[in-house]
Amino acid sequence: MRRICVFCGSAVGVRPAYADAARGLGRELARRGLGLVYGGGSVGLMGVLADTVLGEGGEVIGVIPGPLAARELAHAGLTKLHVVASMHERKATMVRLSDGFVALPGGLGTLEETLEVLTWAQLGIHGKPVGVLDVEGYWTGLERMLVHAVGEGFVRAEHAALLLFGTSAPELLDRFAAWRAPAVPRAWLDPSQT
Ligand code: AMP
Cα–Cα distance between 117 and 6 in angstroms, integer? Predict the structure, then answer.
């Protein structure tokens, strides 16, 4: 693995533990020589994370749509900033550049990005690990939602299991390093089986 993509809030949230976790993840990425790919912003947990990796001498690649960059929301000190045309191009670029995906606490953008890369794993579009860092139980509701969706017959158990839940950055990154993409049944081949 060379680079990890991190999705996280453009806010810092109300608990100091969220920014602490962003700093902890940033230090761990740098310690392992893993580059960071992220949304390119300077605000919220995104800024905390990018500043930490840069401060540790690590590589940080931002991928930001032109309109967001134009509103001066882009981080000015990154190793590299890709300015792309759309949110769709951003997602595809992030997936291409990265070997795994981690979600820290965040809002709708973080949820959307995480669920999209999970959906792409379900479809076999990529075979890279996807995990959330469950700081102070922030992602417990998502875990419960997935169990509910499996129970109600809308998500296969093996697809829900594609999302790894970790409580510390070293633990989650160790699991990423050992990750082998399972041969998941592809949802689109036989929709009646999903
Ligand atoms: P949210 O979780 O709604 O705060 O959105 C954060 C996610 O959306 C990040 O992972 C980014 O990829 C993207 N995003 C939202 N706001 C910004 C911003 N100001 N600059 C760059 N990316 C952003």
Answer: 11
